[in-house]
Write a structure and sequence with these properties.
heterodimer; A: alpha+beta; Alpha-Beta Plaits; 2 domains; 9-stranded mixed β-sheet; two-stranded antiparallel sheet; 11 strands; 34% strand; B: alpha/beta; 32% helix; globular
């Protein structure tokens, strides 16, 4: 049985890495004694899969993981006769308690049937990007220029080689959200296929001198056949779309 | 005091592993500072991922925070990228809990686990905005303290550290807090710093170097004399008599990022009486004090439930020697709480089949490899160092290891030991090769790794008089081994850098004249010297020469039996006569037995302090004579204190002074 969990990562804990977060979850899942399914072999690990990695230093209110719960598991949270009777409504509170400050569980739901992996399923992410010390007018001009450009080339290093990519097709939306004391906040939606474009790359393409303040992932989206939904909305105890696709 | 966090956070996007600087660990305390509260900043002078798991620091952290009149926070040496940004932005060293500046604390207390961190200590003091030399500090500056095994020769750091703690810290940190609290209450007036240091020098187990006059004659140390009549001539170490009274850490810190030893650690005993002559830890932490088995079990089950770890390490200097090891391990494995997903590790295995059996039993989950430490390549060598493992013991252990499905074995050896010959060195290759052959009988792809380290003579051990082997000679012996093992499939040879061994040797038995050298190396950028990518031998060679000091004299010279050694005013309780006799026994290739189960050799550690071995069971652990031929079945007849012991008798160190000759 697969349980999908949505969580937030905010505050100081945002400086931990994706791997650090995976370890936090392993410990937390053991602490709450969720009856986990383990991999086979010499080095058994709980069957847990995470969605798209969040760059170290970014915040998020839309992180996900899928946890495989053992059929007939015998943890404290198991019901009579060893059948898992997970109380989805109570799970976020219990898990948040076992996780570090700043990692908060926003929803949990049992996934019915076969569900594609998060990595595969998610098509885009929405971000809020704080830009430090740039006036809104200049930012607006940079955004307009970028949106009007036929292509936005960035060069990055991949496996020791310089690779040039066009970011323009990956920008689904881009605009100014608000002006704060620290700077201007951009809102953007970036595609995750064929590869996940990072907000930092977008900034580089907008202007080489732009410095990011707090960057926050606000949504991950699954878009298919003209419909669009989140892997799990905040506060959810059911995964309606997963059900839909399974039928 | 305002938090430095708003100034630290912008730096984090520009450094590697920013989680090193955020704190937020599970188990981290939320200290509330205030008037009348003595504040300690416990600093581990190495990278966060090395320092965080340190058990000594975590124990004191909890004990201090439990006191109503003290708070303790933690800090670690910022990595070089972070240090550069901190210096550029004038951000001082900070605590990881509340991100307070280090110089807002009353004490900066360093953990000294290894000599190569000495330059990092200076760097941290400097980053704190405090004068690196004690003599240059004023009444507003924190007191700089240090504890840990290296303080058994504190002299190389005497210029920089105001007070050293010798021995177990559990009790003495309270005594120090009492003195510092009074000093704070008196307003820390000008000139009062010397007074508080003098008061601290009267606390048993505290050494204040500025209270001593050091005289040299003809390039040799001539005398170390107290400046005042109330300052003790010799500082005796502190020893807690019963580990059962100190079930710490109760809330082991669980880091958010990757660190070494990332697992639950439960200390099952302190001290070791195997008597390995090269081992400073075994000499300075006597006697053996075992934790009651029931307390071990409770600390394990509580710790696993609280932390969510799936691995527990039962720590000590020789964990398989714990007298209740079988039952403790059995109980952990059979605990339904662990339900087959928790692995137990014993960091130091004895070389015998019994131990391997235990290891196999407890590492059903995630089995990796086993590590043994024969230390010497031949029986003769092992008699010299008193590591009395016979070849049959080792091969029996290998048979047992490989037959039970393990495929990787690591063997630790020392080279450059006293009286070592090429035959002894080549014995390492021979032993390792035979281990591979045993493994091949059970599996095709076995790996035996022989890991070879250069021996550094340590203060307060029988080898303290021995002239360290030169790095050129260590290189030659390593080449000998490389040539001998080149064609061996399944045998891999690893070695420690002999140049790092050389520098460790400089600091290990140095005196106060090394102070300017350490300062010089630090000023020229020589930090993180225990990291091979930052280690710079030329800095040390040039600084030694610049200050007219000879590396040969400090490192390679055999000490004269009548010579005053720089650490003789610091006492681990061991009689000089005992150490000298043990050195002579070593040269005569004569071993001594584990005194936990045999009559006393009167080393001084028990009798001098009026304490005894404390063991959890009257019967020595099954099997494993470790080659001594010792009849362990008579263990119960030996007078040892059994738990529940005469709980934590007041050691009253003042009362035991003068017993020493």
């Amino acid at each position: 049985m697969k349980v999908r969990i949505r969580f937030a990562k905010t505050g100081k804990v945002r400086w931990t890495s994706h791997r650090d977060v995976a370890r936090m979850w392993e410990r937390a899942l053991r602490r709450v004694r969720l009856p986990l399914a383990y991999t086979e072999g010499f080095s058994p690990r709980p069957r847990v899969s995470f969605g798209l990695a969040l760059p170290t230093g970014h915040e998020s209110v839309a992180e996900y993981l899928d946890v495989e719960v053992a059929e007939g598991g015998s943890g404290d949270m198991a019901g009579p006769e060893g059948t898992p009777s997970l109380e989805m409504a109570g799970l976020p509170g219990v898990l948040s308690e076992a996780l570090p400050d700043g990692v908060d569980v926003l929803g949990a739901a049992v996934l019915e049937g076969r569900v594609p992996s998060l990595q595969h399923d998610v098509t885009s992410c929405s971000w809020e990007v704080e830009i430090v010390g740039v006036a809104p007018a200049r930012m607006a001009a940079l955004v307009e220029e970028a949106l009007g450009a036929p292509q936005l080339l960035v060069t990055r290093e991949r496996k020791g080689r310089q690779v040039t990519d066009d970011l323009r097709p990956a920008i689904i939306s881009l605009g100014l959200l608000e002006s704060r004391q620290a700077g201007t906040v951009l809102g953007t939606e970036l595609a995750t296929h064929p590869r996940g474009v990072r907000p930092r790359e977008l900034l580089e393409a907008l202007g080489p001198d732009l410095e990011a303040g707090v960057v926050r992932r606000t949504h991950q989206w699954i878009e298919r056949d003209g419909a669009r939904w989140e892997p799990l909305p905040p506060g959810a105890t059911h995964a309606p779309h997963a059900l839909e696709r399974a039928s | 005091m305002t938090s430095l966090w708003p100034r630290i956070e912008p730096l984090l996007a520009k450094v590697g592993k920013p989680a090193r600087y955020i704190g937020c660990e599970d188990g981290a305390q939320r200290p509330v500072h205030g008037a009348g509260i003595t504040s300690w900043l416990l600093v581990y002078p190495d990278a966060y991922e090395i320092g965080l798991p340190n058990q000594g620091l975590q124990i004191l952290y909890e004990i201090l925070n439990e006191r109503p009149d003290a708070v303790a926070e933690r800090s670690y040496a910022p990595w070089v990228d972070m240090e550069a940004l901190m210096r550029a932005g004038s951000v001082p060293l900070f605590s990881v809990e509340t991100h307070r500046p280090a110089n807002a604390f009353d004490l900066l207390a360093f953990n000294l686990s290894a000599e190569l961190v000495y330059t990092n200590v200076l760097n941290c003091i400097d980053l704190a905005g405090v004068a690196v030399r004690g003599a240059d500090r004023g009444p507003d500056d924190p007191l700089v303290a240090a504890g840990g095994h290296c303080t058994f020769n504190p002299e190389p750091l005497a210029d920089f550290v105001d007070l050293f703690v010798i021995g177990d810290g559990e009790e003495v940190v309270g005594d120090i807090t009492d003195v510092v609290r009074e000093w704070k209450a008196s307003g820390r007036t000008a000139g009062s710093r010397a007074q508080v240091l003098r008061a601290l020098s009267r606390v048993p187990g505290v050494y204040v170097p500025s209270m001593y006059e050091v005289a040299y004659e003809g390039g040799r140390l001539a005398a170390v004399t107290p400046r005042y009549p109330d300052v003790p001539e010799r500082v005796e170490k502190r020893t807690i008599s019963d580990l059962a009274s100190w079930p710490y850490p109760k809330q082991q810190l669980v880091p958010l990022t990757e660190v070494v030893h990332d697992r639950l650690n439960v200390e099952i005993f302190r001290g070791c009486t195997r008597g390995c002559r090269f081992c400073q830890a075994g000499m300075i932490t006597r006697p053996v004090r075992e934790r009651p088995a029931s307390q071990v079990r409770r600390m394990v089950s509580d710790g696993l439930a609280r932390t969510g770890y799936d691995e527990v390490s039962l720590t000590s200097l020789s964990s398989a020697d714990y007298s209740g090891i079988e039952s403790v391990v059995g109980d952990i494995i059979n605990d339904p709480m662990c339900s087959g997903q928790v692995s137990v590790s014993l960091p130091s295995l004895r070389v015998d089949a019994f131990t391997v059996g235990v290891a196999t039993e407890i590492q059903k989950v995630r089995r990796t490899g086993l590590t043994f430490a024969p230390e010497g390549g031949t029986w003769r060598m092992r008699q010299v160092i008193n590591k009395l493992i016979r070849e049959e013991d080792l091969y029996g252990a290998m048979e047992s290891t490989f037959s039970q499905g393990w495929q990787r074995v690591k063997l630790y050896f020392l080279i450059g030991l006293p009286t070592e010959t090429d035959e002894d060195v080549l014995g390492i290759a021979e032993l390792a090769r035979n281990c591979v052959a045993i493994g091949r009988r059970h599996a095709r792809n076995v790996t035996v790794t022989a890991s070879v380290g250069g021996f550094v003579p340590k203060p307060q051990t029988p080898f303290q008089w021995f002239g360290q082997t030169t790095s050129a000679e260590l290189h030659r012996r390593i080449r000998l081994l490389r040539d001998a093992t080149r064609r061996d499939r399944g045998l891999s040879l690893r070695w420690h850098d002999p140049e790092a061994t050389l520098v460790e040797g400089i600091a290990s038995r140095g005196d106060r004249r090394l102070g300017p050298v350490i300062e010089d190396v630090w000023r020229r950028g020589g930090t993180f010297q225990e990291w091979s990518e930052h280690f710079r031998l030329p800095l040390w060679e040039e600084s030694m020469a610049a200050h007219g000091l000879s590396i040969d004299d400090y490192v390679h010279r055999h000490r004269h039996p009548d010579e005053l050694l720089p650490w003789e005013h610091i006492s681990a309780g061991l009689h000089r006569d005992f150490l000298w006799q043990d050195w002579e026994d070593a040269l005569a290739e004569a071993g001594v037995e584990d005194c936990r189960w045999t009559p006393c050799y009167d080393c001084g550690a028990c009798t001098g302090y009026g304490i005894e071995h404390v063991v959890a069971s009257p019967v020595p652990p099954a099997g494993g004579s470790q080659g001594t031929g010792q009849d362990l079945s008579t263990g119960g007849a030996v007078p040892v204190a059994l738990l529940p012991s005469r709980v934590a008798q007041d050691v009253g160190l003042a009362g035991t002074k003068g017993i020493r000759p």
